[in-house]
Amino acid sequence: MTDMVKARNYDEDGFVKRAACICVNEDETQVLLVSSRRDSELWIVPGGGVEPNELPDMAAIREVREEAGVCGMLGRCLGVFEDTQGGHDDFLKTKNSERGHRTSVYVLVVKEEMEEWDESKVFGRKRKWFSMEEAVKQLAKHKPVQSSYVSLLLPDRDHTTTITHSPSSCQNTITPPPPLSTIIDHQVEMVRQMELGSEMENDIKEDDTAESDGEPSKSPGSSQEDLSNGIVAEDAAADT
């Protein structure tokens, strides 16, 4: 389903919710871009609107299949990027009087390229592989926000000098499991706590056995004689 027939989905701040994938080869030296609907000589990162009740990562996978005709393995999320100018690659730009777009951007390693796909047949979309550097240059001509997040994959990029459109944390992403060493340390600590608990339980049983075999244990400074003397002394004081 294309953006032309989809209802726009907004977040709590009034931004249009979008998702996109930077489609790369295995070693992330090349990126796949698709031609613009408005101008087939311009190139864009495939992406589109997130449908109601759809997770951003699932929307990203769907959009690259529709726009670029590729499938693959979804990897890390680079962030959520704001474009306050609005306007995706379509002629709905005149309707973009909203605050703009927030796009969840993921990295997808391409595993399959279809010969034909939805938007190649409907809009004549083309796709083309570029080096990372060339893709950044191509996008900078008309999609500076997209250029900024593709540039995050450049191998020698200084991430401390970053981009004007700073990414925020991705939502609805899967938290990776803790390292194996952390899991092992946790299990060792659990075993140690269980052993300490068993030792304490045995000590309590031994104390109970000693009390049942002999005289009741006496707490320091509180013998029966002291207690009786205390009672007598209190009674005597009360009588006077």
From TrEMBL:
<dbReference type="GO" id="GO:1901911">
    <property type="term" value="P:adenosine 5'-(hexahydrogen pentaphosphate) catabolic process"/>
</dbReference>
<dbReference type="GO" id="GO:1901907">
    <property type="term" value="P:diadenosine pentaphosphate catabolic process"/>
</dbReference>
<dbReference type="InterPro" id="IPR000086">
    <property type="entry name" value="NUDIX_hydrolase_dom"/>
</dbReference>
<dbReference type="GO" id="GO:0071543">
    <property type="term" value="P:diphosphoinositol polyphosphate metabolic process"/>
</dbReference>
<protein>
    <recommendedName>
        <fullName>diphosphoinositol-polyphosphate diphosphatase</fullName>
        <ecNumber>3.6.1.52</ecNumber>
    </recommendedName>
</protein>
<dbReference type="GO" id="GO:0000298">
    <property type="term" value="F:endopolyphosphatase activity"/>
</dbReference>
<feature type="compositionally biased region" description="Acidic residues">
    <location>
        <begin position="198"/>
        <end position="214"/>
    </location>
</feature>
<dbReference type="InterPro" id="IPR020084">
    <property type="entry name" value="NUDIX_hydrolase_CS"/>
</dbReference>
<feature type="domain" description="Nudix hydrolase">
    <location>
        <begin position="14"/>
        <end position="152"/>
    </location>
</feature>
<dbReference type="InterPro" id="IPR015797">
    <property type="entry name" value="NUDIX_hydrolase-like_dom_sf"/>
</dbReference>
<dbReference type="GO" id="GO:0034431">
    <property type="term" value="F:bis(5'-adenosyl)-hexaphosphatase activity"/>
</dbReference>
<dbReference type="GO" id="GO:0046872">
    <property type="term" value="F:metal ion binding"/>
</dbReference>
<dbReference type="InterPro" id="IPR047198">
    <property type="entry name" value="DDP-like_NUDIX"/>
</dbReference>
<dbReference type="Pfam" id="PF00293">
    <property type="entry name" value="NUDIX"/>
</dbReference>
<comment type="similarity">
    <text>Belongs to the Nudix hydrolase family. DIPP subfamily.</text>
</comment>
<keyword id="KW-0479">Metal-binding</keyword>
<dbReference type="GO" id="GO:0005634">
    <property type="term" value="C:nucleus"/>
</dbReference>
<dbReference type="GO" id="GO:0008486">
    <property type="term" value="F:diphosphoinositol-polyphosphate diphosphatase activity"/>
</dbReference>
<keyword id="KW-0460">Magnesium</keyword>
<dbReference type="GO" id="GO:1901909">
    <property type="term" value="P:diadenosine hexaphosphate catabolic process"/>
</dbReference>
<dbReference type="GO" id="GO:0005737">
    <property type="term" value="C:cytoplasm"/>
</dbReference>
<keyword id="KW-0963">Cytoplasm</keyword>
<dbReference type="GO" id="GO:0034432">
    <property type="term" value="F:bis(5'-adenosyl)-pentaphosphatase activity"/>
</dbReference>
<keyword id="KW-0378">Hydrolase</keyword>
<feature type="region of interest" description="Disordered">
    <location>
        <begin position="197"/>
        <end position="240"/>
    </location>
</feature>
